[in-house]
Amino acid sequence: MTQGVEARTARxxxxxxxxxxxxxxxxxVLDEVERGPPNAIEVGGEPGIGKTRLLAELGxxxxxxxxxxxxxxxxxxxxxxxxxxxxxxxDEYVASLDPGQLSTLGADVRAELAHVFPSLTTLRRxxxxxxxxxxxxSHRAVRSLLEQLAETRPLMLVLDDFQxxxxxxxxxxxALLRRPAAAAVLVAVAVRPCQLPKRLAVALERAQxxxxxxxxxxxALTPLEARExxxxxxxxxxxxxxxxxxxxxxFYLEQLARSLTRSGGLTFDPHGETAAAIGVPSAVAAAxxxxxxxxxxxxxxxxxxxxxxxxxxxxxxxxxAAAVSEAAALDAIDxxxxxxxxxxxxVPRRFRFRHPLIRRAVYEATAGGWRLAAHERCAxxxxxxxxxxxxxxxxxxxxxxxxxxxxxxxxxxxxxxxARLAPASAARWFGAALVSFRRRPRARxxxxxxxxxxxxxxxxxxxxxxIPTSSNASGSRRRTGEYAPRPRAPPSSAxxxxxxxxxxxxxxxxxxxxxxxxxxxxxx
Length: 524
Ligand SMILES: Nc1ncnc2c1ncn2[C@@H]1O[C@H](COP(=O)(O)OP(=O)(O)OP(=O)(O)O)[C@@H](O)[C@H]1O
Ligand SMILES: [Mg+2]
Description:
Layout: H1 6-9, H2 20-35, E1 39-44, H3 51-64, E2 68-73, H4 84-96, H5 99-103, H6 107-113, H7 136-149, E3 155-160, H8 167-178, E4 185-191, H9 198-209, E5 213-217, H10 223-230, H11 236-246, H12 250-263, H13 272-278, H14 282-293, H15 297-309, H16 315-322, H17 326-338, E6 342-344, E7 351-353, H18 356-365, H19 368-385, H20 389-399, H21 405-419, H22 423-439, H23 446-451, H24 471-480, H25 492-508, H26 511-518
The site of adenosine-5'-triphosphate has 23 residues, from helix 3, helix 12 and helix 18.
């Protein structure tokens, strides 16, 4: 069984080209895993160079050998959900297991796992939780789970786009590299080296020095391989021009070739700034934006809604973000699938962007006010569904308005939920909650206003009153400042969240380190 990232890249009719040495290396590592001891692979390289595709190929090779292959990926814009990469890779598989299969793990291990994997929530135990500094128990529990999954056949755990992993996932990977599972488990990680957080870079470096990690650095395709990738429909002269422009990067090649097919020639970039923001050459950005410009208004709107909703995304959330009906969103999704801008995944009602760079480009190109309102609508939709607070907090953080005490309550709650197992994520949420308070004039005196909350309660968070849903209008008015809401009295939950937030934030990390963690890393 394979699940996760393969749907993004591996289309059955797209041949895999080149990379003979890398595939040899992979076969060698698979041999080693079968013989033990366990090993890990890191595939590194610039955006679009073919890491995900190589991992998909590696997964296919492992499956042919009868290995169990589970795949997960981090997401660029949602980096705060604790253990998200491991949850993405393992949660659905674990949910599909017969409960008896986990019973050999022991009650303590299962109780720990219940705090990591949403599908095991029912195994949580009442009573005292391990202290924060004992969160390493959850690492041991995940190691035991991997050993259990690899009991009857080797397991390959693929963790893609790991440069964007949340801090709990980074810590967990570090623990698994330091002390690998005592079973036939191969961990394969893909990273963009120049976007690696320091802590992850150090963990990978250390594992390589200890002989526990094989590194594969992907470079450009050769002209011959590029020719093969482009196929017969592109003549030799054009293939040479595309190679020159792309530098042999397969994503760039593909994107430029799509543009060539449409317009008959390469175009140049009218969106220089956005090209810089997504970190691709300007000709590639031009090709991408030209493709987006050809979309119908409805399809473009839903694609933008999807970029805000997440990657992967559900049509309902994309519809909510775009403020269109579900039926309209599904029509648009058909068009977007047809154009291969998005792809299906192996999970029903879940779609992916063809490539994270496309999501980033679409997201960056949305107007600031519209984007803000779209995040508000996502937060509302998720609240209405009773979604976990961490999923809501991501959108709330990006759309909280001045003096929005409901937002402070959500962010504080998300911080508390993460505090034990993912203190860095918790610090981020607590920091965001404090920022929301500080945004309000004279909100530095929040504890004072908390003590003087009037009898009348403000509208609850995410209520239509608290968060208007008319997208463009609300966004643009807010941008000009005309829309600044009147300060509202904080609900008591916001007051207590604020107090706990202040205490917890000062315990967890200094304000400087919070600011650091919020700073965006540049693209490669
Ligand atoms: N060896 C290959 N053969 C055929 N197609 C390839 C090959 N390598 C990459 N591609 C194609 O090029 C595109 C970009 O590749 P991929 O998504 O694997 O890049 P990436 O390194 O994972 O990028 P990112 O860092 O942005 O995640 C995909 O459409 C992929 O299918
Ligand atoms: Mg990738």
